[in-house]
Amino acid sequence: MVTSVIAMSPYISGVAAWQESWDRQQEAYLPDREHRFAVMLDAVDAVREATPPRLLDLAGGTGTISLRALRRFPDAQVTLVDLDPALLALATASLGDRATIVTADLSRPDWVTALPHRRYDAVLTATALHWLSADRLGVLYPEIRGLLRPGGLFVNADHMPDDDLPELTKRLVTRAEEHRSARFAAGAALSWSQWWHQAEQDPSLAPLVRRRHGIYPSGHSPEWTPPISWHLSALRNAGFTEVGTLWRGAADAATVAVR
Ligand SMILES: C[S@@+](CC[C@H](N)C(=O)[O-])C[C@H]1O[C@@H](n2cnc3c(N)ncnc32)[C@H](O)[C@@H]1O
User: Which of 6, 115, 131, 196 to mutate to test the pocket of ligand 1 (most atoms within 8 A of CB)?
Assistant: First the structure.
């Protein structure tokens, strides 16, 4: 399936509250989530040219990166791509005409044809590409490179354990899981499945959540999370000129690749 550019803002009641609730749910898994976004946007700032930055928010969900990018660079031209009808409706209701919102499946090579532009200053993504297979990601990385201007950046923040710290990483992950479980048990935060259950109770989101069940039958990612060395090597193979680690925290990291 390729794709449509969503033109009309759907009516979602309490969209700001849904955005806040999404952020709290994601932060239950990624306590340093805002820091990742700030680091990403610092990198965009560092390679800015005289023209307004053109940014692609890949698997952008509710528009978290797009909204923060527009706060930082109000003149930015932002494109958001995702496949989830419920999250895209929240993104569309929040971003309005400040971004171009595209429905496309990143597991298919034709996703690029749905974009409104062929050149971007930066492609940014968070907590998303582990939904794709190793084979697909090995092809997606060169596709992303093809969308960047020379000197443009690709930043991917995701679960990417450090190869050199296997035992410590396991312990850090276990500790984080225990802490998270205690917070869920105490009602301090909603889990992924609780959030989706709550969204399905909202009359304006319910039909979209039901459509989502057909798109993601298991409801969540396959949790394929290779170590950071896998990503760095795939990025080098994709032909980027500079490749490295922009940020790290426990089992997560943000890779950066410069065209
Ligand atoms: C955990 S969410 C993260 C969303 C957002 N980047 C954030 O940080 O809040 C993962 C996102 O990846 C999207 N995604 C997963 N597989 C996809 C695919 N094949 N094509 C497009 N988007 C996909 C999901 O729809 C979801 O919005």
Answer: 131
Q: What is the whole-number distance in angstroms between the Cα of residue 17 and the centre of ligand 1?
A: 20
Enter the pTM of the model: 0.96
How many angstroms separate the CA atoms of 117 and 51, rounded? 15
Domain boundaries, the chain: 2-258
Tokens of 33: 């989530």
Span 198-244, pLDDT tens digits? 999 999 999 999 999 999 988 777 767 899 999 999 999 999 999 99
- CATH code of 2-258, in short, is 3.40.50.150
Per-residue pLDDT tens for 146-196?
999 999 999 999 999 999 999 999 999 999 999 999 999 999 999 999 999
CB of 25 within 6 A of ligand 1: the answer is no
- The sign one gets for the Cα dihedral 94, 97, 98, 99 is positive
* Helix, strand, coil fractions of the chain, as percent rounded to 5: 50, 20, 30
Cα angle 73, 115, 63 (rounded to 5 degrees) comes to 45
**Given the structure tokens 């692609």, which residue do they identify?**
56
